[in-house]
Design a protein that fits this description.
With about 230 residues, the chain is mainly α. The chain has a single domain (about 10-230), classed as Tetraspanin (Cd81 Antigen, Extracellular Domain, Chain: A, Orthogonal Bundle), CATH 1.10.1450. It has helices at about 1-45, 60-85, 85-115, 115-130, 140-150, 160-165, 195-230. The longest helix is centred in the first third of the chain and has 44 residues, at about 1-45. The protein is elongated, with a radius of gyration of 24 Å. The protein starts with a helix and ends with a helix. Keywords: Disulfide bond, Glycoprotein, Membrane, Transmembrane, Transmembrane helix. It is a multi-pass membrane protein. It holds the Pfam family Tetraspanin. It comes from Dipodomys ordii.
């Protein structure tokens, strides 16, 4: 009977080992995918999705490359640690996840504490960037605004009148139109999206960041169980 229980416990540990290895392997592969997309964007689109005129390097490509590299590194440590049952690697993996969780929490606290100041600065910087729309050497910013306004069905930072100052006329980019057509931005305001892009994208990010936070918390809890199992 004792031998049966021992074999059962061993089988459970082995199953847990490979289950966690598979989980961490998927985590690593996800990092590879994010990194690959970032490299592809950097190679084919340049500064694609660069909205900020003050921080031109803050592009979608660069953010994806940094995020993908970091996730790959964490996933690799987790994979090797789970496969080799190496307590040092598992502890490192857990500490890295804990640091990420603490970083996310700190950023969230600071964001909510200084929401008004952040909103004012971000909107001022984005409005400044609107003046670079369609100009030479700013293909990334132009593409970014076109895609955001089309996909999120919005126009301008605060509202569509932000573009009036850019063009010195009552007009908007064609990506602001309810029904896209050539030079439709010259038509009446009734044919343009009315939603402000800043608030629309901000709401979307808050919804998705909540999901990311929940995923990160679940991941950390899984690693706590794993570390406790192997260290027991």
């Amino acid at each position: 009977m004792g031998e049966f229980k021992e074999k059962k416990a061993t089988c459970g540990t082995v199953c847990l080992k490979y289950l966690l290895f598979t989980y961490n392997c998927c985590f690593w592969l996800g990092g590879c995918g994010v990194l690959g997309v970032g490299i592809w964007l950097a190679a084919t689109q340049g500064n694609f999705a660069t909205l900020s005129s003050s921080f031109p390097s803050l592009s979608a490509a660069n953010l994806l490359i940094i995020t993908g590299t970091f996730v790959m590194a964490i996933g690799f440590v987790g994979c090797v640690g789970a496969l080799k049952e190496n307590k040092c690697l598992l502890l490192t993996f857990f500490v890295l996840l804990l640091l990420v969780l603490l970083l996310e929490t700190t950023i969230a606290v600071l964001f909510f504490a200084y929401t008004d100041k952040i909103d004012r600065y971000a909107q001022q910087d984005l409005k400044k960037g609107l003046h670079l729309y369609g100009t030479q050497g700013n293909v990334g910013l132009t593409n970014a605004w076109s895609i955001i306004q089309t996909d999120f069905r919005c126009c301008g930072v605060s509202n569509y009148t932000d573009w009036f100052e850019v063009y010195n006329a009552t007009r908007v980019p064609d990506s602001c139109c309810l029904e896209f057509s050539d030079r439709c931005g010259l038509h009446a305001p009734g044919t343009w999206w009315k939603a402000p892009c800043y608030e629309t994208v901000k709401a979307w990010l808050q919804e998705n960041l909540l999901a990311v936070g929940v995923f990160g918390l679940c991941t950390a809890l899984v690693q706590v169980v794993k570390a406790d199992t192997y260290c027991a």
